[in-house]
């Protein structure tokens, strides 16, 4: 379309606008402005607002996941702390339990402690192992002869050993009044650590 034709086609529009009253022109201007603002909001602002809402939802979901992750991390740390405490306790206990190869020397030490205390062994008989969870009990039937002082010293020696030795089923016979000696019948229980198959493989390898 040529410039002259464009001007001639627009001129009647302006003439009509010029014939309108002031109020009509204000209303047309206001409506035109509202249409322009509405178009701007619809095409430019509304998509941005929708994007802002979407990002807010994503941030809210991310914050929720972060809070859940922190809570799980705190639980994990508490669980790890419990595991470390249990592992440390288990290590301390297992040190008091001899391994399989150390049991004979432990029994020898028990026997030697009785002799060093002045007791005479009438019987020293290790019995069959009694398996528990991670350890096994090794009962030893003992018949001893000696004085009260000797017996007290023997028990003191046992309590001072680095390995666990408990005395059970204790019975005294003081019928021999002439020599003031006691006949002692008891069972000493010691324990050994039972290695898992994985540990045994590592030790053998």
Question: Can you put this structure into words, describing what you see?
Answer:
This protein is 61% helix and 20% strand. The protein is an alpha+beta fold. The chain has two domains: 1-95; 100-200, Ribosomal protein S6/Translation elongation factor EF1B (Alpha-Beta Plaits). Strands 1, 2, 3, 4 and 5 form a five-stranded antiparallel β-sheet that branches. Helix 3 runs antiparallel to helix 4. It is rod-shaped.
CATH superfamily of the largest domain: Ribosomal protein S6/Translation elongation factor EF1B
Radius of gyration (Å): 48 Å
| Overall tally of structural domains | 2
Shape: rod-shaped
CATH-defined fold name of the largest domain = Alpha-Beta Plaits
Q: Identify the CATH class of the largest domain.
A: Alpha Beta
Distance between the termini: 97 Å
Poorly predicted residue ranges: 198-205
The overall average pLDDT, rounded, is 76
Q: Name the structural class.
A: alpha+beta
Portion of residues within helices: 55-70%
Helix and strand string, N-terminal first?
HHHEEEHEEH
Give the number of DSSP strands: 5
Approximately what portion of the residues adopt beta-strand conformation?
A: 15-25%
Overall CATH architecture of the largest domain: 2-Layer Sandwich
What's the main sheet like?
A: 5 strands, antiparallel
């Amino acid at each position: 379309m040529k410039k002259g034709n464009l001007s001639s086609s627009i001129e009647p529009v302006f003439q009509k606008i010029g014939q309108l009253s002031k109020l009509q022109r204000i209303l047309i201007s206001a409506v035109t402005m509202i249409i322009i603002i509405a178009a701007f909001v619809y095409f430019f602002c509304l998509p941005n607002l929708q994007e802002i809402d979407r990002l807010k939802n994503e941030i809210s979901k991310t914050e929720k996941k972060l809070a859940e992750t922190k809570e799980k991390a705190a639980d994990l740390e508490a669980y790890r702390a419990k595991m470390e405490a249990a592992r440390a306790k288990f290590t301390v206990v297992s040190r008091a339990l001899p391994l399989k190869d150390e049991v004979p020397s432990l029994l020898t030490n028990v026997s030697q402690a009785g002799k060093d205390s002045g007791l005479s062994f009438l019987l020293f008989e290790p019995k069959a192992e009694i398996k528990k969870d991670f350890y096994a009990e090794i009962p030893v039937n003992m018949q001893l002869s000696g004085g009260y002082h000797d017996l007290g010293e023997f028990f003191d020696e046992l309590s001072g050993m680095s390995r666990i030795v408990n005395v059970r089923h204790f019975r005294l016979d003081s019928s021999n009044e002439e020599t003031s000696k006691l006949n002692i019948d008891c069972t000493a229980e010691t324990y050994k650590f039972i290695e898992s198959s994985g540990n045994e493989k590592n030790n053998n390898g």
